[in-house]
Design goal:
Blueprint: E1 2-11, H1 36-46, H2 50-60, E2 77-81, E3 86-90, H3 95-104, E4 109-114, E5 119-124, E6 130-135, E7 139-143, E8 146-153, H4 155-164, E9 170-171, E10 177-178, H5 180-187, E11 192-197, H6 203-217, H7 223-235, E12 239-240, H8 241-247, H9 253-261, E13 281-282, H10 291-295, H11 306-312, E14 314-316, E15 320-324, E16 337-341
Parallel strand pairs: 8-11
Antiparallel strand pairs: 1-14, 1-15, 1-16, 2-3, 2-16, 4-7, 5-6, 7-8, 9-10, 12-13
Helix pairs in contact: 6-9, 6-11
Amino acid sequence: MRQHLVFGLKVGYALSRGVQHSMREWPHEKEQCMRTFAFERWCDRLQLPTATRDFLLRLRSSPPVRRVQGRLLNVCGTYASRKMGVSIQFESHTVELWAIYTMEYDREVLEFFDQPYQLELHYQGPSGRPTKALHTPDFLVLRKDGASFEEWKPEEKLLELMVTHPGRYQRDERGKWRCPPGEAAAESLGLSYRVRSSEELHPGYIRNLIFLEEYFFDCVVPNGALAHILEAVEATPGITLSALREQDEHLRVDHVYALIARNRLYVDLLLTTVYNCAQIKLTTPRYGGSLWEMLLSIPTGDGHDQEQDSEYHTRISKPRKVHSRHRDHIGHSQEHGAQIPAPPRTGRHAPSASQSSFQA
């Protein structure tokens, strides 16, 4: 059992109430039921060696190897993940936290773990001499097509490190960031290593994702309202939310947002600000795509001020006590989203056979 007090920043909205839904198309209904055989089938499909399987099994049930620490101009904390059923640490409230949001709602991501393992890197240091460094990647990410350690950094920091530590951080001919010593260390374990840049995170998409997070799980859409909204949008593809409200004065905007979050309505989340009713143009997935398809085609960021975007949907929450009956469950009273914990975190709530994001 784990208890701690949660203070400070709460990104998004509280999703703490147990709610019965009349429509069940939210994204993690199946992904919350991990069974051991699902992991084994995933390993079989990828033809992972026995040593790599055993290594991943150990990491998935182990606590983080280090606690994150706040630095100057940085905010650290934890994100209470529904996908994982555990608290995930972040060391940056823009880059790492935004990366967590994308992994949380990316169906290609099956599981992700913070501060998973300490790698030993060997490379040529700035002085030209052989150097050995101990390094803990930000995340271990298990996707449908493989598993990798991932290190997220601001683009400007990577440009700096490419000059000061060329033996460790490099950019290939395609413009892709690499860490050859990290790749070598991960390869010895049967895994891959990826350097991820803040330029991969689209500010507008993240803003919309944070805004919609409440509606993934916590809004009841009656069947009558569902049929009425879908019929209206089918009749006029591209209708704005404002126009839809003018047609029906009893329309609840929350129902529309819930349908967007649950893939029953389509909105271009890269170009549209979803909380601007006049700007939202609604279609059904047959005319556009789905929320999750958007995640797979996000272009490189446009240099927008990411810290400003993150703070736009940041609010102060009251202290809450987080209860967990088992090591692998988030209690019903816990708020989901990004939080700043008061006491230091002492262990990971590893996914068990009853909860994780692998699909059987």
